[in-house]
Amino acid sequence: MYTLNRISCSVFAALLICWYLLSPGVAGGADKSGAAPANRVSITEFGAVADGKTLNTAHIQSAIDELVKKGGGTVVIPQGVFLSGAIFLKPGVNVYLEDGAVLKGSTDISNYPKMRTRVEGQFVDWIPALVNADKCDHLSITGPGTLDGSGQVFYTEFWNARRENPQVTNLAVERPRLVFIQSSHHVRVEGVNFKNSGFWNLHLYRCTGVVVQNVHFEAPYGERPQCGPSTDGMDVDSSQDVTVRGCVFAVNDDCVCLKGTKGPFALEDKLSPPTEHIHVIDCTFKAGQGVVTLGSEATTIRDVVVENCRVTGKMPLVRLKLRPDTAQHYEDIHYQNITLAASEEVFKDSIFDVAPWTQFFDLKGQPPPKSIIKNVTLSNIKGSFGSFGEIRGNSGQSEISDITLKNVDVQLKNDKFDAAYVKNFKMENVTVNGKPFLLPTQ
What we know:
The chain is mainly beta. 11% of the residues lie in helices and 45% in strands. It is globular.
């Protein structure tokens, strides 16, 4: 009898799963936005005009608010260029950008009303993003369309200010992010093109269960004043269980940046939990200042896996920023199955850039804190790059240990490697320029 009941329960469970998968809004029963067709509204139904000139902020917000009244659904951005200031998504409302759709950010900063927001590891009165979401569980922002931040105006303003005063900080010149999502769970961002953000492209704060898939992040890179300052591809801030898959990065700052908070009292900050369980897979890195960077605001970051990725641009593979004013703990960071395919003109770049980060740090009269960096591995790394680079901590503050290179076969312009700070540095089957490689102390 017990066995029969178990079998009956199993059959019932299987039927229940089949019913669920075939129901409207699930798997094949849903449209690409993840919502039932009846709950889709186009912003043009609310008066939005696709001429690239008319400000559509109020029309788009009306579409969002109307869907909330109806129990949720999907706001559709159709083909065309729709100019907008800051919009605010609500729980139950998704966004779908059709092929040829462009949601283009206004360059008038007054269209981004200043508010309390999270940026650079703190809460300040600053401007919101073009697209904002707070406590929007099960949010999806999808489709083949484009989010365009109209960044060049903001880039020029920043570089002009920096030229007049080299100490100008990022926040001194207000520039909108493209998307800011906070305190949201089970989020999906897929297929969208992020282009010319004024500041960071996609900022996640205190989110869990996020998938960012097949997204292109693009901002002008290279020489000033054309390049986009602080145009990070993704900033994963105090978030957990984030997967970045199949994305392409060509930006002028860190491609994927793992963040938290900063300063001598950072460990007391209950609003900045550890950033952990991060998986970056099958991505291409064409331009930036770091493939996956830890810092510049961060306390605890752990369980990070970067795998099956290709680096073709001018940037370090492993970039760990070590603040002298913050107690940092970076642990279990793994890069595996990475192809380095840099061209000749970028041969000056390094595999490691682990070094003090002293930009605008402030001990606030406190003693220098201790930091720990441990269990960092690179395995199955191949291709061409500039050099190994360096692993260097803040003197008397940083404890760096258990760094392992395994199955590495690379062509390097410069095979010098400064890793004197590391305790328990291991190399296994490391070949450089066709010859077995050992550190001078090995």
